[in-house]
Model the fold of this input.
Amino acid sequence: MSHLELHSLCSIFPRMSGADFDAIKADIKAHGLNQPVTVLDGLILDGGNR
Done:
């Protein structure tokens, strides 16, 4: 998996941490990624928590 940086507009949305972030990681591992991460010019525009 490659690492992408966040687009400045992605900072509009708060970053997840702690138990919430652990829960989303577990859900993605169990069910897959239901909504794709949106990338613009090589930067994450939407889906930075995913």
Summary: The mean pLDDT is 90.
